[in-house]
Specification:
The chain has three helices and 13 strands. With 201 residues, the protein is mainly β. It has one domain (5-198). Strands 1-13-3-11-7-6 form a six-stranded antiparallel sheet. Strands 2, 4, 5, 8 and 12 form a five-stranded antiparallel sheet that branches. Strands 9-10 form a two-stranded antiparallel ribbon.
Length: 201
């Protein structure tokens, strides 16, 4: 196992993952949502797709054993472990400056959309597409089959999810800076998170 890597509060990070390696994303403080993306390393236009993965797995929240697929319907990551209550989100787009403007923010606000672009750029990569993220630890209940609400996470400090790479990929993370809704806890305080890359078991 390699060293633990930081996903800074309000900011993003990215890493390379080889086929067969495992990735552990850790909710260090227990209340932090992490927007998460994965891209085919040789072709960033092929990406983990929530709208393609939902019909592939037959549910809106993946569980251990589920294979997440790309926009070409090819396996990219398998969820192999989850110590959290298993409440994540595949429905909500990553926040952006327009989302915060709509919530009444008058100045620039850190956002997951920019965080992903900046994280890829720091690796010398250019974002080709911006897919809907897999929002780890995010609690978006679906009510009566129609409505959604934005609720605090249900986990505890140190909860993690673990994936196995089914292809060489580039993964991106954002410690979501949403502090105008309680998705990062009722106190709306943003925390850092961490990830680890592990060799095949």
């Amino acid at each position: 196992m390699q060293d633990r890597h930081l996903i800074p509060a309000r900011k993003g990070s990215a890493a390379r993952l080889k086929k067969g390696q495992r990735l552990r994303v850790i909710n260090t403080h227990g209340t932090q949502v992490v927007d998460f993306w994965a891209f085919n390393a040789p072709d960033l236009g092929e990406c983990m797709s929530m709208e393609h993965s939902r019909p592939a797995i037959g549910r809106i929240i993946p569980k251990v054993g589920d294979v997440l697929v790309t926009n070409k319907r090819r396996p990219i990551l398998t969820l192999v472990a989850d110590t959290s209550p298993g409440v994540h989100d595949t429905l909500i787009a990553s926040c952006d400056i327009y989302r915060y403007q709509g919530l009444g923010c008058k100045e620039f606000h850190d956002n997951c959309t920019d965080n992903l672009g900046n994280a890829l750029q720091a690796m010398g990569l250019k974002r080709v597409v911006h897919p809907c993220p897999f929002n780890l630890f995010m609690n978006i209940p679906v009510k009566d089959g129609l409505g959604v609400s934005f609720e605090p996470p249900l986990g505890k400090p140190g909860d993690y999810v673990e994936f196995r790479a089914e292809m060489d990929c580039v993964v991106g993370f954002s410690a979501c800076p949403q502090d105008m809704l309680p998705i990062n806890g009722a106190d709306c305080v943003i925390h850092d998170a961490h990830y680890e890359i592990l060799e095949p078991a």
